[in-house]
Specification:
about 40% helix; DNA-binding; alpha/beta; Arc Repressor Mutant, subunit A; homodimer; Rossmann fold; seven-stranded mixed beta sheet; about 220 residues; 8 helices
DNA sequence: GCGAGATTGTGAACAAGTTCACAAACGCGC
DNA sequence: GCGCGTTTGTGAACTTGTTCACAATCTCGC
C-alpha cells in the first residue's frame, strides 16, 4: 500500500465492485473471494486485489472479503458513505431521465436541485423537485453545499453552465453535452457521450473498416 | 501505418475529432492543423496524428488536414458514412431521452425501432415511432437489418434483452443497465454507467479519501 | 497446537498507450 | 527552381496500467 496516486481506471472499477457487493449482500452472502468477484464482475481476481491494495488491506487470506465490511470501505473511499447532493442543470429529456433514475438511491446520490434557464419551465415541478432559475444556482447551493453537478443542456449552453456550476462551488461535473468544457484545474469533469460510444460500436459492427491509404492526399480537398 | 489492431481509445477519440471537424466545417473552415485540433479538442497534436496514422495518411505536410476530406474519412472509418439503424429496447425514461436526442442525426445514427415488454406501452407512440413487442424483435429486425442495439431497461431484465438483441442479429450493444452482460465473443458491448461516473467524481470531490489501513481485518465482519 | 488447503497482498515482468523528436513533404515568395 | 518556414507521419523512449507468481497469512479439523 504505497502512497501513490490512485489510477482512474481503479476508481471506475471500485464502483463496479460496490455494485456486485451490494447484490451479494442482498442475497445474504457474507464473504466473497477475489475469485468469486471475478466471476460476478468480469474483472480479473488479480486486478481486484491490486485495486484494493491502493487503499489498504481489506481481506483475510484463506477466507476472502467480508461483504459488509468491504461495502463500507468502498463507500468510504468513494465518499458514498453519506448522502451526496447533486445539482442538475437542464430540465429536458436527459434531465428527466436522471431525476427518474432509480439506482441513485442505493449509492446515496441524490439530485438535490434542478435548474433551467427557460422561463416557461422555472417553477414547474420536476420529479420531486421544483425547477429553479439557473441564475439563482449560487444562492441555492449556498444552502445545499453540493460538490457535484450534472450538465444536461444543449452543447451551445454547456460552457456557460459549467462556469455557473464552478462558481456555485461544484468541483466535479458530469457532462452530457457533446463539448469540451474549460474548467479550473481543481474541477474534475467526466463526459458521457452516447455518440462516442455508438461510434465505437459502429466501427466494430463492421470489422473491416479501413480508409484507403492516401485518401485526402491529392488536391486541396476532395468534396466528400 | 502498420496493420496493427486499432486501440479502442483511438476510436473513442475519432468521434471527438469528428465533432470538432463538423463544427469547423459549419464555421466555413477549410483546413485544420493538428495544432488547431489540439486547441479545439483538448487532445494533443501528437496523439491526433498518431491516431490517424492507424488508418492512413490524411494530411498535407506544411498545410494540415482538409476539413471536408477528413470528415469523410473518419465517417467512413466509423461506418457513419451511411445511415446506421439502431434498435432501442426499453421505452422508459432513458429510452425517452434517447429518441429525443437531437445529436444523433448529424452522425447518421437513427433509432429505427423501439421495443418494450409492457403490454400497456406496446402500440403507443414514442417519438416518431410506435412501441413494439420485444417478442417481435427478431422479426422486425429482419426488415431493418440493424447491427446496433441499445439496452435501456432495468438491470434485472438486461441479460434477457441482450440475448434477444443478439438473436436478432445485433453485434454491438450499448448498455445503460448497471449489469455485466454475457454475450458471444463476436458481440461488442459498451456500458454507460452514470453511477460509475458520479462515483469517480465523488472520490475526487473530496481529495483526501483514504480508508484507514487494516479496516476489515479483525473478526469475521464488522457491522458497517 | 499443527499440518493441509485456501486466499490475500505485492514486487516484478509484461503489455498497452502516450509523448517525443526528427526526417520527409509541402507551399510560397522571389 | 530554390530555400525557408510549416506541418505531417512515425520509430523510439517513456509512462501508465495489467498480469503473474509467490511468500505471508489465515481457518479448520484433529
Amino acid at each position: 500500500m504505497t502512497e501513490t496516486r490512485v489510477p482512474v481506471p481503479t476508481l471506475e472499477r471500485l464502483a463496479i465492485y460496490l455494485r456486485v457487493l451490494l447484490d451479494a449482500h442482498e442475497s445474504g452472502i457474507q464473504t466473497l473471494s477475489s475469485q468469486e468477484m471475478e466471476q460476478h464482475s468480469g474483472i480479473s481476481a488479480a486486478q481486484f486485489r491490486k485495486d484494493l491494495s491502493y487503499f489498504g488491506e481489506f481481506g483475510k487470506p484463506g477466507v476472502g472479503y467480508s461483504v459488509q465490511g468491504l461495502i463500507a470501505c468502498i463507500e468510504r473511499i468513494l465518499r458514498l458513505d453519506e448522502e451526496q447532493p447533486i445539482l442538475l442543470v437542464g430540465a429536458g429529456n436527459i434531465g428527466s431521465a436522471l431525476v427518474g433514475y432509480p439506482n441513485f438511491r442505493a449509492h446515496r446520490l441524490r439530485i438535490a436541485a434542478v435548474f433551467d434557464n427557460n422561463f416557461v419551465k422555472i417553477g414547474r415541478p420536476f420529479g420531486d423537485l421544483i425547477i429553479e432559475d439557473i441564475a439563482r444556482i449560487r444562492e441555492v447551493n449556498a444552502q445545499i453545499g453540493a460538490r457535484l453537478g450534472i450538465i444536461a443542456v444543449p452543447a451551445h449552453a454547456a460552457q456557460e453552465v459549467a462556469d455557473a456550476l464552478v462558481d456555485a462551488g461544484v468541483t466535479g461535473i458530469l457532462n452530457f453535452a457533446p463539448t469540451i468544457l474549460r474548467t479550473p484545474p481543481h474541477v474534475h469533469v467526466r463526459n458521457v457521450s452516447f455518440l462516442q460510444e455508438l461510434a465505437v460500436l459502429s466501427y466494430h459492427a463492421v470489422e473491416d473498416a479501413l480508409c484507403v491509404n492516401g485518401q485526402a492526399r491529392r488536391g486541396g480537398d476532395d468534396g466528400v
